[in-house]
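Re-run with default settings, no changes from the original entry. Doing this only to confirm the output is reproducible before filing.
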Amino acid sequence: MSGIDVTGTLLSQLDRNLPGGILIYRDDGEQTILYANPWLIRVFGCSSYEDFMKTTGGSFMHLVHPEDRSRVDKDIRDQISGSPEKLDFVNYRIVRKDGSLRRVEEFGHRVHELDGRTPLPSFPFPPL
């Protein structure tokens, strides 16, 4: 063991400086966004988490280009159901705050909340 405290400051630094995005959303009817890291917020051209939530409507599916939504939803569900590790990989377009489009590659991993209730997919977005 190195004796490094991996809580608090270190995790905060990692979160702010990762060369990619992290998005966590609840797999409920609305696909409610619970968290987005600063890198992802910047990719969307937003100035804050609140701005990001307003831009995306607070929903994972609303950050995906409308023409890609049904394919992305199907691909994620099909891949997760067929993967013992509950992993998925999809490529799609996002609509930024200014209306411009960007293509992202998403690697997802479904995890569950500690109380076992609602599935909680978390999706890191690699650098573009």
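The chain has a mean pLDDT of 81. The beta strands are 21-25, 33-36, 87-95, 101-112, 119-125.
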